[in-house]
Amino acid sequence: MRLSDNCMKRLSYFTLVEVLIVLAILSIVTVAIGININKALEEQRFRTEVETIVNELRIAQDLMLILQADVTVKFLQGNDGITFTLETESQATRNWMNEILRVKPVFKTIRGISFKDELDLPVTEGAISLHFLSKGTIMSRGILRLSNSSDAVNVPSWAQVRVINLYGYPHPIASSAPSSHDPIFLPNEDKAIETTITSLTRQEIAQFKEQKEEEGSTDEEPSN
């Protein structure tokens, strides 16, 4: 039994429609997967750059406490992204100088940085400066906000944001996700808590200093 020409045409027509529907669905799925992959990559790059900043701020604090150096960390918006420098006029050992002079990456995923220093410290026009001075008695105090949006304060709903609290005295440095009730300025902490935290930080730094000195001694041993 043979199908009529009209039946064949109808089958061909419906088959073509079904193929087009399948192709449309595949296109939508492909686009959705691509968007999710790009979003995941953006989030990973953002987290990596935030961690880099946290590590550099820790180094600045270590230099201040271990070498009694005055250190300034500067962020500057450039054409290719946000650059940063770690500056000090104090003399440092070879191991520390290698870290200071190491080429710093350019931040391309972090597009917005905001910091309002509560202390009246020197500033560089067009740059954000964080100060670690006088063995920890003078330090920048405020909330450093980082975002993949160009505005790190009034961020859109899709943007990623991390904050780093700088307390104005030696304190463990870490990033955290902001809450909806995050203040613009840091609240004043209880003096006893401040003293305890500072003491713990200095103990941690002392242990780190011993490790650095051991590494320096190993590097300076003459080879046979």
Our estimate of the beta-strand percent is: 15-25%
Biggest sheet: strands, sense, closure? 4 strands, antiparallel
Number of domains: 1
Q: What is Rg?
A: 27 Å
Which word captures the global form? elongated
Q: Could you explain how this protein is built, in words?
A:
By secondary structure, this protein is an alpha+beta fold. The protein has helices at 5-66, 94-101, 191-220; strands at 71-78, 81-88, 112-114, 127-133, 138-139, 141-147, 161-167, 175-176. It has one domain. The longest helix is centred in the first third of the chain and has 62 residues, at 5-66. The protein is elongated. The mean pLDDT is 77.
Short description:
The protein is an alpha+beta fold and about 220 residues long.
Secondary structure: elements and pairs:
Layout lengths: L4 H62 L4 E8 L2 E8 L5 H8 L10 E3 L12 E7 L4 E2 L1 E7 L13 E7 L7 E2 L14 H30 L4
Antiparallel strand pairs: 1-2, 1-4, 3-6, 4-5, 6-7, 7-8
Any key phrases for this structure?
224 residues, alpha+beta, four-stranded antiparallel beta sheet, 3 helices, elongated
